[in-house]
Amino acid sequence: MEATLTDRHVARQTPFVITMVLALMLSIAPIPDWASPYRPDWVALALIYWTMMSPKSYSVGIAWIVGLVLDVAQGTLLGQHALVLSLVVYVTVKFHLQLRQFPLLQLSATVLALLGLYQFILFWINGVAGVNAPSVTYWGPIISGALIWPVLTLLLTSVRRQAPG
Question: What is the pTM of this model?
Answer without folding.
Answer: 0.93
